[in-house]
């Protein structure tokens, strides 16, 4: 209990520091970027596809998928709610209906959608309803937002196959993708830009090490 409380306080402190240094900005459309510090690659834009996953705090999820070969870009944001153009503060209330997600642009010739799903199951606990670790609320729900019927079928099959690896039922929702709202600028590439931050050192880095991604 003490550790969970400490992590919440650390995360809140990181957000306050970002605000104090003027890093908080209104959400806006981002141009996909590449990052020399990750394995993200450049591909023909016409061959790329999109995957949208929710697995708790998007800071952690983003850091995982940015490390995978075949991933072109990862953007943190919000999906699945009713409020237009929500802010982080609004989403955190749990009243907008949105989930914190990462929208992943990937090259299916290098990494398949099925492989991305495998990483999703490995990188979070899909059996805890509306919770990942110390983060609680519907905005932290485990979710797959599919962009085509093929993705829906692959997601359903992957979920069924992954169940054998968990003692409790997987509660991950699989729903059609809706409007995606990129999160505020200070949320993007959070781990890469803030590796010394306590939350990154205590939560994200150990996750990456466990997954052999760092």
Structural notes for this entry:
Residues 16-39 have low confidence and may be disordered. It is built from 7 helices and 8 strands; from the N terminus they run αβαβαβαβββαββαα. It has helices at 2-20, 58-65, 88-92, 113-123, 149-162, 190-193, 198-210, and strands at residues 49-55, 71-79, 99-106, 131-132, 135-136, 142-146, 173-176, 181-182. The protein is of the alpha+beta class and 214 residues long. The protein has a single domain, classed as 2-Layer Sandwich (Peptide Methionine Sulfoxide Reductase, Chain A), CATH 3.30.1060. A hairpin with a 2-residue loop joins strand 4 and strand 5.
Class by alpha and beta content: alpha+beta
Shape type: globular
Give the DSSP E fraction (strand runs of 2 or more residues).
Answer: 15-25%
What level of helicity do the residues show?
25-40%
- Name the CATH architecture: 2-Layer Sandwich
Mean pLDDT: 86
- Major beta sheet summary: 6 strands, mixed
Ends distance: 28 Å
Instruction: Please give the number of β-strands.
Output: 8
| CATH topology type | Peptide Methionine Sulfoxide Reductase, Chain A
Spatial strand arrangement across the major sheet: 7-6-1-3-2-8
- Please name the fourth-level CATH homologous superfamily: Peptide methionine sulphoxide reductase MsrA
What is the succession of H and E elements? HEHEHEHEEEHEEHH
Task: Give the CATH level 1 class.
Answer: Alpha Beta
**Low-confidence runs:** 16-39
Query: What number of structural domains do the residues give?
Result: 1
Count, helices: 7
Radius of gyration: 16 Å
